[in-house]
Design goal:
Strand order of the largest sheet: 8-5-3-2-1-11
Distance between the termini: 153 Å
Shape: elongated
Helix content: 40-55%
Structural class: alpha/beta
Number of strands: 16
């Protein structure tokens, strides 16, 4: 009876450990569908820490990326290799890729998997912001190749083939990667992936063996925090360029119309967010000079009649300034030409329009307040000899005239001295009065008959 009880207890304990309700059978899942930058690096690193703190059996990273920054990639690889729980990197769904930086992340995983119809590789390093010479290029290639060899060696993958993706920019399909020893599994879906993982032990980065039982594992999905989502949004070079242009326009509008408040607030906030993003992204500072030149040309267009030449030059300068602003290692981390064009043309039109309005308003005669009375016509309420009163602008004013003016005559305001107006009589042409005909008083010229 004692032996039977022990057998039942052993069976119950085994079933409990393998049950999906047990915490140790849970798998934390995240989806990385973005370029590799500080936001995605923070998301992956935080998820690895969370999986290690809680009773998760593994972390599943569904990866699809065109690549990204080397600095962020190295931090992700370091976090994966130091993870307390096994990390599964799965390139999925079909048609996705893990290129450039994504290949390093895939090779660093405890279990590297790909879905049918996916590809990986093309991890040749790119120097940001300048064209490298032969020596610098060789240093970059050797450094990246050594990094790949180190990762592939500890993971038991094909070192030479993995290195060729760095030195020769080779890419591999899912079947090629499996046959060449770059990945462990090609899985159609998550169920297929977990079944294949459960069939054999996992080799950790330090060489230890660990058996994962994921056939009935419960998958818990983790999402980006609000902070990570905002940071990821700002890391888009197109967004950073739009914020920069909007900020410049807003601050300029506030400086020309002090007290408007809204343009200043929007412009200041946009500038700060743009600087924050561009400080992290690989930025060409010479592009800022082009954008500044464009703004200067837009302002000059409002003051100088160039028949649109200065405005067109400003649009061209802003277009190339935006296009060259961020020098990312992949096209997805650069400002798209359509974005640069879509911002440059409207920005130029709005800037020139505002400058023109300001110039015209400065040259327009004042029509409000006391200064607006200059040039107005009034009627003498009393005789001006030379002082008296006149009626103008619906009010009675004290007035002073250099010549005497009779009651009821019209006068024109020439100046204002405190609360007294300087006026002159309105000159009436002799032709209007009927006394200026060359043929005599009151006679009109007539054609000969």
């Amino acid at each position: 009876m004692t032996n039977l009880t022990k057998a039942f207890r052993l069976l119950a304990t085994t079933l409990l450990l393998l049950s999906p309700v047990a915490g140790f059978a849970d798998v934390l899942r995240i989806v990385v569908d973005d370029t590799i930058h500080p936001a995605s690096q923070e998301f992956i690193s935080r998820s690895i820490d969370e999986a290690g703190r809680k009773p998760y059996q593994a972390l599943l990273i569904e990866l699809r990326t065109p690549g990204g920054l080397e600095s962020s990639t190295r931090k992700i690889v370091n976090a994966i290799t130091a993870s307390r729980v096994p990390v599964i990197v799965w390139v999925t769904p079909s048609g996705s890729r893990a290129a450039s930086a994504g290949f390093f992340i895939l090779e660093s995983a405890d279990i590297a998997a790909m879905a049918p119809g996916t590809n990986t590789g093309a991890s040749h390093p790119v120097l940001l912001g300048q064209k490298p010479d032969d020596v610098m290029r060789q240093k970059m290639e050797n450094d990246s190749a050594a990094f790949m060899r180190s990762v592939a060696t500890h993971r038991g993958r094909n070192v030479k083939v993995a290195e060729s993706a760095v030195l020769q920019s080779k890419s591999f399909t899912d079947e090629e990667a499996l046959q060449l020893g770059l990945i462990n599994i090609v899985a159609r879906d998550q169920r297929d992936l977990f079944q294949q993982i459960s069939a054999k032990p996992v080799t950790r980065f330090n060489g230890d063996k660990q058996q994962l039982v994921l056939n009935s594992a419960r998958v818990v999905t983790s999402e980006m925090t609000m902070r990570e989502q905002v940071l990821s949004f700002l890391m888009d070079p197109n967004v950073a360029f739009v914020l920069l242009a909007l900020g410049i326009l807003g601050l300029w509008a506030e400086f020309n119309h002090p007290g408007a408040v809204l343009p200043g607030v929007v412009g200041g906030l946009s500038i700060i967010l743009a600087i924050f993003a561009l400080n992290i992204l690989p930025t060409r500072y010479a592009a800022f000079a082009l954008i500044l030149l464009a703004f200067i040309l837009f302002v000059l267009e409002g003051f100088i009649t160039s028949h649109g030449v200065l405005g067109a030059g400003g649009v061209v300068a802003m277009f190339f300034g935006g296009l060259l602003l961020v020098n990312g290692p992949i096209p997805e981390m650069r400002v798209h030409w359509i974005t640069a064009l879509s911002v440059s043309i409207p920005f130029g039109i709005i800037a020139v329009f505002l400058v023109t309005l300001i110039v015209r308003s400065h040259g327009r005669q004042v029509v409000t307040g006391m200064q607006g009375m200059i040039g107005e016509i009034g009627i003498a309420e009393t005789a001006l000899t030379p002082g008296g009163r006149i009626f103008v602008h619906g009010e009675t004013w004290s007035a002073l005239s250099p010549v005497n003016v009779a009651v009821g005559e019209s006068v024109v305001v020439r100046a204002i001295n405190g609360l007294e107006l300087k006026v002159e009589p309105v000159a009436v042409p002799s032709q209007i009065a009927g006394t200026g005909s060359p043929n005599g008083p009151g006679l009109e010229d007539s054609a000969p008959t």
